[in-house]
Specification:
The complex is a heterodimer of chains A (about 600) and B (about 375).
Chain A: H1 2-7, H2 11-23, H3 26-31, H4 36-66, H5 76-79, E1 83-84, E2 87-88, H6 90-126, H7 134-154, H8 184-213, H9 226-257, E3 268-269, E4 272-273, H10 281-315, H11 322-335, H12 351-379, H13 388-410, H14 413-419, H15 423-453, H16 459-485, H17 505-535
Antiparallel strand pairs in A: 1-2, 3-4
Helix pairs in contact in A: 4-6, 4-7, 4-17, 6-7, 6-8, 6-9, 6-10, 6-15, 7-8, 8-9, 9-10, 9-11, 10-13, 10-15, 11-12, 12-13, 13-15, 13-16, 15-16, 16-17
Chain B: H1 2-31, H2 41-68, H3 78-111, H4 127-156, E1 164-171, E2 174-178, E3 218-221, E4 226-232, E5 237-241, E6 246-250, E7 256-260, H5 266-272, E8 280-284, E9 297-302, H6 304-313, H7 317-320, H8 322-328, H9 331-337, H10 353-369
Parallel strand pairs in B: 1-4, 3-9
Antiparallel strand pairs in B: 1-2, 4-7, 5-6, 5-8, 8-9
Helix pairs in contact in B: 2-3, 3-4
The chains are: A mainly alpha (about 600), B alpha+beta (about 375).
Chain lengths: ~600, ~375
């Protein structure tokens, strides 16, 4: 309980914190830091680096898909042996697709998004001096770093990185005879994922403990900003689902290295019959998607939380249906555990299971729709200020709606027979989970940059970045629906071998060009980010006139966040434009007794 | 040399961009634009939402119209027509929802952009509205579930009696098909019996194996139920017959099935598509390695009479590989089925077995390398 006591500590404890801060050797301050704000920045910069790599990989395979006849000799300095006679190696193409997925889903949108914003915002928005365990938090980042190093190494080995798709279905991922990437590359992938999951668990346990135990006085659960609700629920999903991935990974390691037959059965490959009998490749898929599906919500829920906060602040209105927003997050989180098999309608699974999973899957559309409507209702009759963060948030709502809608047709097992593993699926999840989460992350960076670095990012560059990316994302992924309806399968190196798929060459070229432009546009952001870190305008205390607690800290908060006592909370975080109030926002720290002019009859301070 | 010039040029362009940016920032500071909470950009941004919406919807319409000609032709199977209808009915509802939500989502930012002196409307919730927009999607979803469930259970119901049974086997990187022959029964198989000649691992202890035949194309009878028995012998593949709206994974160690009814013959489809070269195809849709994109197999739908004629003209696998079968099958069965095909009927030549084992390895390696 000592942790709880510190959170409500007096000025004495604070003096002690500040003292610590100055005494720390630089390695504890800048490398092995236990300060949640610094760890968040470490996650953010790691995430940005991974995003550039993941994006670059996608540009490489888009070049192959958009310009199948092009001479790629000019890529030889970068790719070396993977370019043979001016052509990309087909196995390396698969490796690119696999690593793009792995990097984006896990390293960017899980670690980069949750890692950054859960760490940064949870203590600041609930009024805590730091995470429940700063030490565990530090370990969490460095396990992620270790995992990153291992994954990075796999990109440079001779047999290439894992290449069986990010879902690593065995037997392909279990047998080096089947594809070169399933040799050392796959081993490194599996090792990296074990470290990654350990990191995620430590992070998640910390987030949950901190939210439950370290809220400041008055910060009840119904006064938590939606960001915190989102991070809290996300952490719980992660804790419950990631270990299942480890069990799948572990069994796969046994099958690969120790001759067990969990996932392998009756295989004849490379001129010999293997000894494995009685295993089930479909079992792996069940285990994988038991994490894999909640994982897409691990990725998107924090983005939804972040944007709820930003949309309310910049519409100068309370978020519409605060409680409904919480219930939807909880409902989505619960349902996310019982829909996994909709990824497996045509795996030969019992068709009756297919019907059950179709039913459960379509239920998710209801809380998701509620969220979409609530966002729109929040914009209604607002007084909207378009900061770059606000633009990206509106972009997220657009992606969440359009990508979510196509999920409804994919969730229908009968319609999914034709659409499964076509570009329709690629279009769907890149919009609803990939782009939406990316936009949530970018919105978060633009919004909380002043709190992170004490300076403002350049708005004009932010606007250019937004419009290029927003329009670009639709130009990339909207046409992919057409290609999917035409039946084009995923993970194809080339389609020209089939009469049925020998069309749409222009459209594929168009998509590739759009992808390259969007990738290039991200460097506007990267320039803005690093430039503003050192030369941006100095921020004011509360640049967005926001209600939440983080804006009551100094411009550059030290270790411990508040120089004096931690402020108390008296109201929910969404008192924007309250009738009768002089200003259009009332921070959570203002007691009702100070605002008699705007109080509703039921609003009184409790004592 | 050229690369040096390119690098210098890029550096030059970047530094010019940087200077423009700096000058812009400084002039904004001079003009005091940063003092205002909200500048002209706010109006520009809000207006851009309208521009993007209007051009976006126009682009949506035009691109859809031009993409349509490349969509697959009408479904060539009985269930495919119904799942296509299901798809387009759902898509129509979704498109409507997409248009309505996006119209609102893009117009509100414009209508309610910041105006000096305005105050936003404090409107934290409204239970009636929230109930409505929870219940309406729930009803629509329930409709989709019922509709989808009806189709799904019909498609996945057990294959009707008397269906044409055909085995489809995936391997790296080709499809192979096996027909049961005159007895209508596929012979047993076991993966340990696979070698370079006997790719299916057909078990010749089973008399049903002797009349099975293994053609180089998948022939289907128009108007008859076809029951595919799907399996894989190495990694997971997926049978995808795009024109028939058929897809089912081929899983090693776990045979799967899919039954459907082809309704349009190849000749008829050539007329419908006005393409005399048109052919149905079988593709793989589960990533299976280097040659995943090249697992094309020709599919032909015949009129029932032509189909029977074609079937009758096929030689059994056992007769084409009589000497191989002679080393595998029990003597009694050989006498029964293979007499006419073997040069020395009934006499098992033990010397055949050894070279076969060798060729098995060589052939396996060469098929593996063929795709490199």
């Amino acid at each position: 309980m000592s942790a709880v006591n510190t959170s409500h500590s007096s000025a004495d404890a604070h003096a002690h914190d500040e003292h610590d801060h100055h005494d720390l050797p630089w390695i504890r301050q800048y490398v092995f830091s236990e300060d949640h704000k610094y760890i968040a920045k470490q996650y953010l910069v790691s995430g940005i680096i991974w995003a550039i790599i993941g994006g670059l990989l996608s540009v490489l395979f888009r070049i192959q898909l958009g310009f199948p006849d092009a001479d790629l000799t000019w890529l030889k300095p970068l790719l070396g042996e993977w370019i043979q006679n001016g052509k990309l190696d087909p196995e390396f193409y698969l490796a690119l697709v696999t690593m793009h997925g792995t990097i984006m889903v896990f390293f960017v949108l899980t670690a980069g998004l949750s890692g950054t914003f859960s760490n940064f915002l949870i203590p600041l928005q609930i009024g805590a001096r730091d995470m429940a365990s700063g030490f565990l938090n530090m370990i969490s980042y460095w396990l992620f770093f270790l995992s990153s190093v291992v994954m990075m190494i796999s990109l440079f080995i001779k047999t290439g990185p894992a290449s069986g798709g990010w879902v690593i279905y065995p037997p392909l991922s279990a047998l080096p005879q089947a594809v070169n990437g399933s040799g050392l590359g796959m081993t490194l992938w599996l090792v990296a994922m074990v470290f990654f999951v350990a990191s995620t668990l430590m992070g998640g346990l910390n987030y949950v403990t901190t939210v439950i135990n370290l809220r400041t006085k008055g910060m009840t659960f119904t006064r938590l900003p939606l960001t915190i609700w989102a991070f809290f629920i996300t952490a719980i999903i992660g804790i419950l689902s990631f270990p299942v991935l480890v069990s799948a990974v572990l069994l796969l390691i046994f099958d690969r290295g120790f001759g067990t037959s969990f996932f392998l059965s009756e295989i004849y490959i490379g001129g010999e019959a293997l000894h494995h009998e009685g295993g089930s490749p479909v079992l792996f898929q069940h285990l994988f998607w038991f994490l894999g599906h909640p994982e897409v919500y691990i990725v998107v829920i924090p983005a939804l939380g972040i944007t709820s906060e930003i949309v309310a602040t910049n519409s100068r209105k309370p978020i519409f249906g605060y409680k409904a927003m919480i219930f939807s997050i909880v409902a989505i989180a619960f349902l996310s555990f019982i829909v996994w098999a909709h990824h497996m309608f045509v795996t030969g699974m019992n068709p009756f299971l297919g019907s059950i999973f179709m039913f459960l899957t379509l239920i998710i559309a209801v809380p998701s729709a509620v969220k979409g409507f609530n966002y729109i209702a929040t914009l209604w009759k607002g007084n909207i200020i378009f900061t770059p963060a606000m633009l990206f948030s509106i972009g997220l709502v657009s992606f969440f709606l359009s990508g979510g809608l196509t999920g409804i047709v994919l969730g229908n097992s009968a319609a999914d027979i034709q659409l499964h593993d076509t570009y329709f699926v690629v279009a769907h999840f890149h919009i609803v989970m990939g782009s939406a989460s990316f936009f949530g992350m970018l919105a978060g960076v633009y919004h909380w940059f002043p709190k992170m670095f004490g300076r403002m990012m350049d708005e004009k560059l932010g606007y250019i970045h937004f419009w290029l990316t927003f329009i670009g994302v639709y130009l990339i992924f909207f046409p992919m629906h057409y290609i999917g309806i035409a039946g084009f399968p995923r993970r194809y190196y080339s389609w020209t071998g089939f009469d049925a798929f020998n069309t749409f060459t222009d459209l594929n070229e168009f998509i590739s060009i759009a992808a390259i432009i969007v990738f290039a546009a991200q460097f506007i952001f990267i320039f803005n980010f690093f430039y503003s870190m050192f030369r941006g305008r100095v921020s004011t205390l509360n640049p967005w006139k926001s209600n939440t607690l983080e804006w009551t800290t100094p411009i550059n908060p030290g270790h411990g966040n508040w120089p004096g006592a931690i402020p108390h909370v008296y109201r929910w975080p969404y008192d924007y434009s309250k009738p009768g109030a002089a200003d259009d926002f009332i921070p959570q720290t203002v007691p009702f007794s100070a605002t008699p002019e705007s109080n509703f009859p039921h609003e009184k301070d409790e004592h | 040399m050229t690369s040096v010039i390119i690098i210098v040029a890029i550096a030059l362009i970047l530094s010019i961009l940087y200077l423009i940016f700096r000058i812009g920032v400084l002039s904004n500071v001079m003009k005091g634009r940063y003092q205002k909470i909200v500048g002209t950009s706010n109006t520009v941004n809000s207006f851009l939402f309208i521009v993007v919406f209007v051009t976006g919807i126009l682009a949506f319409y035009l691109s859809f119209m031009s993409a349509r000609e490349h969509f697959l032709p009408e479904a060539a199977s009985a269930h495919g027509v119904r799942t296509d209808l299901l798809f387009w009915v759902i898509m129509a509802v979704l498109t409507l929802a997409f248009l309505i939500t996006h119209a609102v989502l893009y117009f509100f930012p414009f209508m309610y952009r910041f105006k000096e002196g305005n105050k936003a409307y404090f409107y934290p919730d409204n239970h009636t509205i929230e109930r409505i927009w929870t219940i309406v999607p729930a009803i629509i979803m329930a409709g989709f579930v019922v509709y989808g469930y009806k189709e799904w259970s019909a498609i996945t119901s057990p294959a009707p009696q008397g269906s044409e049974v055909i085995e489809v086997m995936g391997k790296q990187f080709a499809w192979q098909v096996r027909y049961p022959g005159a007895d209508g029964k596929l012979g047993k198989y076991h993966y340990r019996k696979i070698d370079a000649i006997n790719e299916f691992g057909i078990d010749f202890n089973d008399s049903a194996s002797f009349d099975d035949f293994v053609p180089m194309e998948l022939h289907l009878p128009k108007g008859k139920n076809v029951h595919l028995q799907i399996r894989s012998r190495d990694v997971i593949h997926s049978v995808f017959l795009p024109h028939f709206r058929v897809k089912m994974d081929a899983v090693p160690g776990m045979p799967t099935t899919f039954w459907f009814t082809p309704t349009i013959s190849t000749a008829e489809m050539r007329e419908i598509t006005k393409n005399p070269e048109f052919n149905y195809e079988l593709a793989c849709t589960e990533v299976c390695g280097r040659g995943h994109y090249a697992m094309r197999f020709l599919v032909i739908v015949d009129e029932p009479a032509d189909y029977e004629k074609w079937k009758a003209s096929q030689k059994t696998w056992a007769s084409l590989n009589a000497e191989y079968v002679a080393t595998k099958a029990p003597k009694a069965l050989q006498d029964l089925y293979l007499k006419e095909f073997l040069p020395s009927a009934g006499v098992v030549d033990t010397t055949i077995a050894a070279p076969i084992a060798d060729t098995a390895k060589v052939a396996a390696v060469s098929t593996h390398d063929a795709h490199r």
